[in-house]
Amino acid sequence: MWLRLPKVTIRLLLSVLLIIIFLAPFYWMLLTAFKTLDEVVAVPPKFWVDKLQWVNFKDAFTRINFLHYTKNSIIITLGTLVGQMLVVVPAAYAFARYQFKGKSLLFGLVLATMMVPGQLIFLPVFVMFANVGLLNTYVSLIVPFIASGMAIFMLRQTFMQVPDSILEAARLDNSSEWKIIRTIMLPMAVPTLSTLALLTFIGTWNSYFFPLVWTTTDAVRTLPLGVKKLQDSEGLNPHIVMAGNMMLILPILIVFMFARKHIIKAFTYSGVK
Amino acid sequence: MTNQWNHMKKKFAVVLTAVVGTTVILSGCGQAGANESAVKYTKGDKVVEIKFWTSAMEQVNKDLVDQFNKTKGAELNIHVSAEYQGDYSEIQQKVNAAAIANTLPNAFIGEVSQTKGFADSNTIVDLEPFMKVNDFNRDDFKIGDLDNLYVDKDMYAFPHMRSLPVMYVNKTLAKKVGLNENGPATFDELESYMETAYKATGKTPMYLLNNDLWILEALLSSYSNTNMLNDEETATNINSKGAVELISFLRDGVSKGLIKVFNPTQLNDFVGAVSDPDTLLTFSSIGGYKIFLGLAAKSKYELGVAMIPEGKGGTRGVPVGGSNVYMSNTGTEEEKAATFEFMEWLSDTEQAAYASANTGYLPTRLSSLDTDLMKKTMAEFPGYKVAIDELKFSKKRPTTGVYHEVETLVVSRLGDILTDNKDVQQGLDALAKDVNAILTR
C-alpha cells in the first residue's frame, strides 16, 4: 500500500500540472477580459482582479458591429453543419456498404483532400467564386467545407462497424436504403456524428483564414474577423480584445458542455472495435 | 518509334508554347504602366462608384472617405465605398488574389515597400499620365524620402501616412537618476545611459519588440551605415561587419540585463514593460506616439521622443514607413479619372493634416505643417517635431516584392540569435544564406 500511495500522488500531481498547463492561457484570457488597462500593464502582473470590469464586454460589443458578425458566424456555421451532414452521411454510407467500380480510387481521393493544406487552394477557389459572382456571399464560405474528407472517413468507419446481419434483416423487411440510414445507421452513429458536429462547429466558428481571404466587404465576415478588427482599432487595449475573445469562444464552451459525453463515447466505441 | 517521336514533338511544342506565353506575360508585367493613358475627369449625370480598400487606422480612413463623399464627391458625382481589409500583409494577399480574379478595387492602401511588387505584377497603374492631364504638382510631397512612391522614374503611388522609428524616453526616470531627459544622442552614450538606470532601479531599462524588421533597418543604418539589402536587392547585408557589430551590441545588452527583446506573440508583455515607470527606453514607430503617451499618462511618467541615436562618425538613417495609396489597374477610363480625383483629394493638405493629427503618423505634405490643425497638434505633442526633424535622415525601404518573406524569416531567427550563446557571425551567415535564397529565387 505504501508503495502505491506515491504513485497515486505522482499521478495526481501530474494531472494537476497538466490541468494548470491547459487552463492557464484560458484563465489569463478570462482575467485580462475583466481587468482595467492599469491592471493589464501592471508590473509585476496581477493574477486576480479587484473589481470585475463588465464594461470591457460592453465596449467590445459596441465598438464593432458585434451582432452583425455573430449573425454571419451563426449562418455560416449552421449552414456548414447542415450541408456537411447532407453530403457526408450518404457518401460515408456508400463507401461503407456499397461495392462499385472505382470505389477504392474515389475513397483514396477523398482521403487525399485531407492532405492538401487550405492555403494551397484558397487562390483557385477565390478566382472560381469571383468568376461566378459568389464572392462575399454565404455560399462561398459554406460550400467548400461541406464535403469534408475527415468526416466521410470517420463516419465510414462507424458505419462499417454495424453488423451485416442487421442490414440484411432490414432489407428483407423491404426497408429502403434511406430508411436503413435513418433508422439504423444514424442512431448507431450518434457519438461519431456528435463528435463530427462539434469539430465542424469549432472549426467553422473559429475559422479566420478563409473568411479573411474570401471576403472583401463586411457583408458576410464572421466574428473572428470582427474581433481582429477590434484589435486593430483598439491598438494597445488588450482587455477589450480579450473580452471580445471571451464572447467569441462562449458558444464553443456551451456546445462542448452538451456534446462532451458523446465525444468520449465516440472514441471509446471506436476503440472497442 | 515515329509515333513516339511525334508525341515528343507535340509535347515539346506544348512546353515551348507555355514558356513563350509565360515570357510574354511576364515581360508585359515588367513594363507596367509604360503605355498608360489617362483622361481628365468630367462630371457626368451618373454617379461614378469607386471601391477603396483600406488598411490600418480604419476609423480615420473611414472618416476621410465620408468627408469626401459629402464634399468633393457630391460635387463631382463620385461616390467612394471604403472597405477595411486588415493589416498590410493581409491587404497585400487580398490585392494579389483580386488581381488574379479580376476583382480589384479602384484604389487601395498598401505599405510603402509594396510599390515595386505591385507595379511589376501590373496590379497598379503609373500615375504620371494622370498627373500630367490634371496638372498635378508633386513638389509639396517632399517630406522625407519619397523613393517608395516611384518605380524607375515614374510615380506609382501617393503618400498616405508616414512613420519613422524613434526612441521613446521616460523623461521622469531619466531626471530621477541624473540622466539627460532628451535621451542618448549616440550609441556609445546609449550603453552608459542604460547602465546608469539599471544600477539605480535594478530593472531592465530598455525593451524591444522583435516583430518589425523596420526598427532593425533603422538601427543598422544608424549604428553602422548598413542597409539590409545591397543596392541591387539580390543579397542581404545582414551578415556584414556592420550588422555583426550591431547585433553583438544588442546581444551584449541582453546578456547584461540592459535590454530585453520580446517576440511577436508577447505584445501584452511589451505593453506591460513599457508602461512600467522604471522602464527607460524603447524604439518604436512614431505612429504609436499617442498610444505610448496614453500608457505613460496611466503610469504617471512623462514621455519624450528622441531620434534614433547616431553611430560612429555621426551616421544616421531611418527607413520611411507607413502607407501609400495605389490606383489599381482596373476599371474604365472614367473610373480611373474619378479615382485620381479621390486620390488627389485624399493626399491634399487638409486631409494629410487630419490623418496625421488623428493618428500619430506624420503628414505627407510640407503645406500640412502650416495648417492650424498641425500647428496645434505639434504644440501639444512635441514628439511630432522630433520625428519631422528626423525625416532629414530618412531613406527608402527595400522594394523587392519578396521582402515580406525576408522580414518574416529575419524576425523569426533574430530572436534566437539575440538570446543564445552561439557565435553571432555564424548565426548571421546562416541567416544570410537563407535570405539570399529568397532574393535570388
Automatic annotation (TrEMBL), chain A:
<feature type="transmembrane region" description="Helical">
    <location>
        <begin position="12"/>
        <end position="30"/>
    </location>
</feature>
<feature type="transmembrane region" description="Helical">
    <location>
        <begin position="74"/>
        <end position="93"/>
    </location>
</feature>
<feature type="transmembrane region" description="Helical">
    <location>
        <begin position="184"/>
        <end position="205"/>
    </location>
</feature>
<keyword id="KW-0812">Transmembrane</keyword>
<feature type="domain" description="ABC transmembrane type-1">
    <location>
        <begin position="70"/>
        <end position="259"/>
    </location>
</feature>
<keyword id="KW-1133">Transmembrane helix</keyword>
<keyword id="KW-0813">Transport</keyword>
<feature type="transmembrane region" description="Helical">
    <location>
        <begin position="105"/>
        <end position="129"/>
    </location>
</feature>
<comment type="similarity">
    <text>Belongs to the binding-protein-dependent transport system permease family.</text>
</comment>
<dbReference type="Pfam" id="PF00528">
    <property type="entry name" value="BPD_transp_1"/>
</dbReference>
<dbReference type="GO" id="GO:0055085">
    <property type="term" value="P:transmembrane transport"/>
</dbReference>
<protein>
    <submittedName>
        <fullName>Carbohydrate ABC transporter permease</fullName>
    </submittedName>
</protein>
<dbReference type="InterPro" id="IPR035906">
    <property type="entry name" value="MetI-like_sf"/>
</dbReference>
<keyword id="KW-1003">Cell membrane</keyword>
<dbReference type="InterPro" id="IPR000515">
    <property type="entry name" value="MetI-like"/>
</dbReference>
<keyword id="KW-0472">Membrane</keyword>
<feature type="transmembrane region" description="Helical">
    <location>
        <begin position="240"/>
        <end position="259"/>
    </location>
</feature>
<feature type="transmembrane region" description="Helical">
    <location>
        <begin position="135"/>
        <end position="155"/>
    </location>
</feature>
<dbReference type="GO" id="GO:0005886">
    <property type="term" value="C:plasma membrane"/>
</dbReference>
From TrEMBL, chain B:
<dbReference type="InterPro" id="IPR006059">
    <property type="entry name" value="SBP"/>
</dbReference>
<protein>
    <submittedName>
        <fullName>Extracellular solute-binding protein</fullName>
    </submittedName>
</protein>
<dbReference type="GO" id="GO:0030313">
    <property type="term" value="C:cell envelope"/>
</dbReference>
<comment type="similarity">
    <text>Belongs to the bacterial solute-binding protein 1 family.</text>
</comment>
<dbReference type="Pfam" id="PF13416">
    <property type="entry name" value="SBP_bac_8"/>
</dbReference>
<keyword id="KW-0813">Transport</keyword>
<feature type="signal peptide">
    <location>
        <begin position="1"/>
        <end position="34"/>
    </location>
</feature>
<keyword id="KW-0732">Signal</keyword>
<dbReference type="InterPro" id="IPR050490">
    <property type="entry name" value="Bact_solute-bd_prot1"/>
</dbReference>
